[in-house]
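Q&A FORM
Asked by: J.P.
Topic: structure of Putative rRNA-processing protein EBP2

PROVIDED:
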Amino acid sequence: DGLKQCLSEFKQQLAWVERLDVTSGQVVDPVSQSASDKDAVDPENDFQREMSFYRQAQAAVLEALPRLRKLQVPTRRPDDYFAEMAKSDQQMQKIRQKLKSKQEAMERSEKAKQLRAMRKYGKKVQTEILQRRQKEKKNMLNAVKKYQKGLSDKLDFLDEEQTSSQGNKKGSANQRIKKGPNAKRRYKNQKFGFGGKKKGSKWNTKESFNDVSSFRSKVAHNKGPGKAGKGGKKALNKRPGKRARQKMKSRAR
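REPLIED BY: S.T.
REPLY: Here is the structure written out as tokens.
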């Protein structure tokens, strides 16, 4: 009774625009939109509790804004309004750097996880290949031993080995055909030819022996122009004797 009496003494009947009080109940989560989750906020969970406060304050603002506009009270600050923030730029820069370093650490950790998974998968594939090869080798050795002891007269393991080797050779040949020569090989082929048989390439054949279209009698018998006497070209280019060469050297000195 005493509290109610004190309240009636200092209570002032002012207009709402002077009080700006808005009472709002708990707001339902818009994601769930279920009435069962209305009272499901755990007070020990900091995130749920803060989100409940945030939604309640947002609902109160949405209720108060139309009433202020109806009373012609401005609700947006002017463009030239300046107010100092509660936290300085240095503090915000520290927070930004901390968040950035945390994000980079998470990305590095994710990359490391991916690398470990890839290595693990590669090792698994490698062990499977080694096990398959060991199994094939063991089966072939057992087949050889049986054949040597006379327990089996089948030589299927040899056929399988030959077919596998032939298949590998064919595969490599097909790859070479599809791939073709590289630029260096093509340049050498263009410059030096494509190889082939060299020995006996200048031998006469029956057709070349019977073909006398390129025969010149004057050239063959040293009767052409520029031939000097009996010796022809050889007589003109005859080397002087030893004494003559010695005399020529002594004159030069």
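FOLLOW-UP: The chain has ten helices and no strands.
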